[in-house]
Design brief:
mainly alpha
């Protein structure tokens, strides 16, 4: 696999990773409410979720989706239901105050990482995206080393981007602004997550 192909995969995926979606909304909210540590663990979960779908695409899952449409539909519905659950929890706790700065956070790093992985895994269309990218840029005879390098690029892109998002939105100023309009923002975020869930289910 050529260097140009590696760079192409990296750039295409980085642009996709930076596009707003449910992962971005969840990361912003967690960074503000729980701080950088939890949001960093969440970013790691996103990276692992990206590797999951990229590996599945390499293994031919997108072809399986084409052969068994009911499987793709079932995974979409499960994923959409998970996002709707997150949205409902945001609305339910919208009026709850932020924990005091420096207090114990409600999420452990492991719980935040699980949330990140589950949020990313809730969208099977990611596997379709990777399937399309790999079909055009990843040679069919690519070695295991090449494939491993591509997965490493995918993990790094996803994780590093959301680490940056986590750092920006965990800043005390962002927390202060969020605290003043928390109820409204949580309801807006919850609505966005719900819309993403509906979009995944219907698309």
């Amino acid at each position: 696999m050529t260097l140009a192909a590696f760079v192409s995969v990296a750039l295409v995926h980085l642009v996709a990773a930076m596009s707003p979606g449910p992962s971005f909304v969840v990361c912003v909210r967690l960074a503000v409410t729980d701080g950088f540590g939890s949001a960093a663990a969440l970013a790691l979960g996103f990276g692992l979720g990206a590797v999951l779908w990229a590996s599945a695409a390499m293994a031919g899952l997108t072809l399986l989706f084409e052969l068994v449409p009911a499987l793709f539909l079932a995974i979409k519905i499960i994923g959409a239901a998970f996002l709707l659950y997150i949205a409902a929890m945001m609305w339910r706790h919208a009026t709850a105050p932020l924990p005091a700065a420096g207090s114990d956070r409600p999420k452990t790093p492991l719980a935040a990482m699980r949330l990140g992985f589950a949020t990313f895994a809730s969208n099977p269309k990611t596997a379709v995206f990777f399937g399309a990218v790999f079909a055009g840029l990843l040679p069919q005879d690519a070695s295991l080393l090449d494939r491993g390098a591509v997965l490493l690029i995918v993990f790094a892109n996803e994780t590093l981007w959301y680490l940056l998002v986590a750092r920006v939105f965990s800043h005390p100023r962002a927390r202060s602004v969020y605290g003043r309009i928390k109820a409204t923002l949580d309801r807006v975020f919850g609505t966005l997550i719900a819309l993403f869930g509906v979009k995944i289910a219907l698309s």
